[in-house]
């Protein structure tokens, strides 16, 4: 099939690459020319600057110029196209509603270009972006208004998780396709032939509105489950003596009905989707006069969780942040990615700076460069106090406290580095329970405060 993927971000680039692996002729289109030039080079460092996903570079290198093409001129690639995937940003407005500015602009541009194409072939416009329920219909109206002929619209939400996006695009749990006519289901079955009738992967055909709803319910369910463990499980471990959070988790999740995923307590879930998707669903449900108390609670627990360890450090450990130097390890919202959208580290750093710290020494194995843009001092003069380091050891040197804000595997071995690099009195704040041998460092005079456990004062 001849496919255009519009928007070459985390979703679009991975989708385009994996479709090209299956021998489709894929044109990855973006209005950001710099990005397109970087991807067209096929060079790892140029690709990773924008999207850093394990395995992605290899696919691009293998299919570039054969099945995969990059382009910033839609008109030059429009003839003979079967399917256009829309993988555009859909951020939040301040009131929680979905901001469709990027989406509408791209859809209008696509509509104008398709209306002018010469061939009469049917074309299906597919929403991969997460968009409010009813947006496929809205897309149809845009196409009709521009006089586009012989087309269909579909919803095909994306469920990949960053950090393992390529693996999940190759082997998803399910593929959800929402169309309103048989012809379009048939076209999309040809695109996804590797998943249709698969023994494990569920290929679900439904209405566009159901497909749109599936994405919102799935994401808010995941965040609600995380918030349950953070807002209830972690609090039990922190407030009731002798409750061991790891045993509690194991005991509960040994029940086959209860998921292990999401049960690891943390300083909140970040990423580009959870926060904005739950906010959007709250907005959509309020519009139809439905109570949203449960979703609001999930959202609030998650936001509070991002910074509450700093309050605990002050209240329980008696730590005074004013004029101190603090190391922050883990800037991306999780391991294996350089994406910092909605990362807990941003809230942590803002909160620390608000408490008057003199310096922040930051380190992330992949996201230091992203952080320099996200935490640029033109946005907040206090960000000038952040320095970036190439290793955890260098970041920890000369600090009074350490905050671990993501789950990078290399942090598991930190206890030895801490012992060798700094001297007590010293506070370790562990937002991800990354230090399994915390009792050892406490025995050596370090204070340890982690999510899900009572504060451990050194002897
Ligand atoms: P992104 O910001 O990484 O990428 C979006 C791309 O669209 C950018 O490259 C941007 O330059 C391009 N773009 C913007 N306006 C354009 C236009 N007018 N024409 C052409 N290109 C344009 O976003 P993302 O993370 O890939 O997310 C895309 C959508 O997928 C969102 O709706 C998001 O909610 C959803 N989603 C994201 C994830 C994820 O983990 N990132 C997972 C599932 C679903």
Structural class: alpha/beta
> Portion of residues in helices?
40-55%
Rg value? 24 Å
Q: Tell the overall outline.
A: elongated
Mean pLDDT comes to 97
How large is the share of residues in beta strands? Answer: 5-15%
| Each distinct ligand | nicotinamide-adenine-dinucleotide
Uncertain spans: none
Number of helices: 18
| Strands in their spatial order, largest beta sheet | 3-2-1-4-5-6-7-8
- Give the tally of β-strands: 14
Query: What separation lies between the terminal Cα atoms?
Result: 67 Å
Biggest sheet record:
8 strands, mixed
Describe this structure in words.
With 459 residues, the protein is α/β, with parallel strands linked by helices. The protein has 18 helices and 14 strands. It has helices at 10-21, 33-40, 44-48, 56-63, 101-115, 135-145, 165-170, 182-191, 208-239, 245-253, 274-287, 293-305, 308-315, 344-354, 368-374, 392-396, 414-421, 438-443, and strands at 2-6, 25-29, 68-71, 83-86, 123-127, 151-155, 174-179, 202-206, 325-329, 359-363, 386-388, 401-404, 427-430, 447-450. Strands 3-2-1-4-5-6-7-8 form an 8-stranded mixed sheet, with helices on both faces. Helix 8 (182-191) links the parallel strand 7 (174-179) and strand 8. Helix 1 crosses helix 4 (56-63) and helix 9 packs across helix 12. The longest helix is centred in the middle third of the chain and has 32 residues, at 208-239. The radius of gyration is 24 Å and the shape is elongated. The termini are far apart. The model has no long low-confidence stretch (mean pLDDT 97). The structure holds nicotinamide-adenine-dinucleotide. Nicotinamide-adenine-dinucleotide binds at residues 6-12, 30-32, 35, 87-90, 102, 105-106, 109, 129-130, 158, 160, 162, 272-273.
């Amino acid at each position: 099939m001849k496919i255009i993927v519009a928007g070459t971000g985390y979703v679009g680039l991975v989708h385009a690459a994996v479709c090209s692996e299956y021998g489709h002729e894929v044109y990855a289109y973006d209005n950001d020319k710099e990005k397109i030039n970087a991807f067209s080079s096929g060079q790892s460092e140029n690709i990773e600057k924008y999207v850093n996903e394990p395995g992605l570079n290899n696919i691009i290198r293998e299919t570039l110029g054969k099945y995969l093409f990059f382009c910033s001129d839609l008109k030059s690639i429009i003839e003979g196209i079967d399917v256009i995937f829309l993988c555009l940003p859909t951020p939040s407005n301040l009131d929680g509603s979905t901001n469709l500015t990027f989406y509408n602009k791209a859809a209008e541009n696509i509509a104008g270009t398709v209306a002018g194409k010469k061939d009469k072939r049917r074309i299906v416009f597919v929403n991969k972006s997460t968009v409010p329920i009813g947006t496929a219909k809205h897309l149809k109206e845009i196409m009709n208004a521009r006089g586009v002929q012989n087309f269909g619209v579909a919803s095909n939400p994306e469920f990949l998780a960053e950090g393992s996006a390529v693996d999940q695009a190759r082997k998803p749990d399910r593929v959800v396709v929402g169309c309103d006519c048989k012809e379009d289901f048939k076209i999309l079955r040809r695109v996804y032939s590797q998943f249709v009738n698969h023994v494990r992967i569920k290929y679900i055909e439904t209405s566009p509105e159901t497909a749109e709803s599936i994405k919102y319910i799935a994401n808010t369910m995941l965040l609600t489950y995380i918030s349950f463990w953070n807002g209830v499980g972690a609090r039990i471990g922190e407030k009731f003596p002798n409750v061991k959070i790891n045993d509690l988790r194991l005991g509960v999740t040994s029940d086959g009905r209860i998921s292990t995923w999401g049960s690891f307590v943390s300083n909140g879930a970040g990423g580009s989707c959870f926060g904005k998707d739950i906010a959007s669903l709250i907005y959509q449900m309020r519009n139809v006069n439905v109570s949203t108390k449960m979703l609001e609670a999930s959202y609030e627990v998650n936001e509070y969780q991002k910074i509450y360890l700093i309050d605990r450090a002050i209240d329980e450990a008696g730590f005074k942040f004013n004029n101190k130097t603090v190391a922050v390890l883990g800037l991306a919202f999780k391991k294996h990615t350089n994406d910092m959208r909605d990362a807990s580290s941003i809230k942590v750093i803002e909160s620390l700076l608000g408490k008057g710290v003199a310096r922040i020494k930051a380190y992330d194995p992949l996201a230091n460069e992203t952080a320099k843009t996200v935490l640029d001092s033109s946005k907040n003069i206090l960000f000038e106090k952040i320095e970036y380091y190439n290793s955890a050891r260098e970041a920890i040197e000369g600090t009074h406290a350490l905050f671990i804000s993501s789950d990078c595997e290399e942090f598991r071995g930190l206890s030895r580095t801490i012992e060798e690099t700094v001297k007590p009195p010293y506070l370790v704040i562990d937002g991800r329970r990354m230090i399994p041998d915390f009792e050892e460092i406490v025995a050596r005079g370090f204070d340890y405060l982690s999510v899900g456990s009572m504060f451990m004062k050194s002897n």
